[in-house]
Amino acid sequence: MKLSADARKLRHVIEKAMDDHTITKSEYDMIIHQALDDGQIDKQELALLKELLDMIANKTIKVMKD
Fold first, then answer.
1. For residues 20 and 59, is the Cβ–Cβ distance under 8 A?
2. 37: how many CB neighbours lie within 10 A of its CB?
3. How many CB atoms lie under 10 A from the CB of residue 30?
4. Max mean pLDDT range (13-17, 21-25, 32-36)
5. Strand pairing partners for 23?
């Protein structure tokens, strides 16, 4: 399945957090804003967000203060 342009942008930011194993509050907010930017969350974006939230929940990615 080909990713939409919005999903590609979102994936890039999420992959950076995955590589760093950390995400700042402002990066997290930017990811949510990016997902909602076009007024809808498509299936691809939803899958990426779910993956991010799962990794935060199991502490694979740690949320840091700015």
1. no
2. 13
3. 14
4. 21-25
5. 63
Report DSSP state, residue 48: H
pTM of this structure: 0.81
pLDDT tens per residue across span 31-58: 998 888 888 888 888 998 999 999 999 9
> Counting every residue, how long is the chain?
66
List the structure tokens of 36.
Answer: 């909602």
Cα–Cα dist 52/57, whole Å: 9
Angle between helices 25-36 and 5-20 (to 10 degrees): 160
Q: What is the residue whose two structure tokens read 């799962």?
A: 54
